[in-house]
Design goal:
Blueprint: H1 6-35, H2 41-45, H3 47-64, H4 68-97
């Protein structure tokens, strides 16, 4: 990518942010759906699955030339937020089934 001004850079970042939000929202829908398949909080927290995801995205980040530390921080934060969201969804589903 070549840019001729800071505004060009900012415009590209804005476009990427829009796409990232759209994709994160899709991920959120998947997380909400996953809550229905899990039996307890341990299933929601799924530390082995979290590590699998982190390992995968770190490899992909390295392939893309992004420092693994950045993607790991981003994903740990995102996964933590989604675990909280999924726990809420899981509790809501269990209350509705009771």
């Amino acid at each position: 990518m070549e840019f001729s001004s800071i505004q060009d850079v900012r415009n590209q970042i804005d476009q990427l942010d829009n796409e990232l939000v759209r994709l994160i929202a899709q991920r959120g829908k998947c997380v909400k759906a996953a809550a229905a398949f899990k039996t307890d909080h341990a299933d929601v927290r799924a530390p082995d699955r979290v590590q699998q995801v982190l390992d995968k995205v770190c490899i992909k980040a390295a392939d893309e030339g992004l420092p693994e530390e950045i993607i790991e921080k981003v994903y740990r934060t995102m996964i933590g937020a989604f675990i909280d969201y999924e726990l809420e969804q899981h509790q809501k589903l269990r209350r509705e089934q009771a």
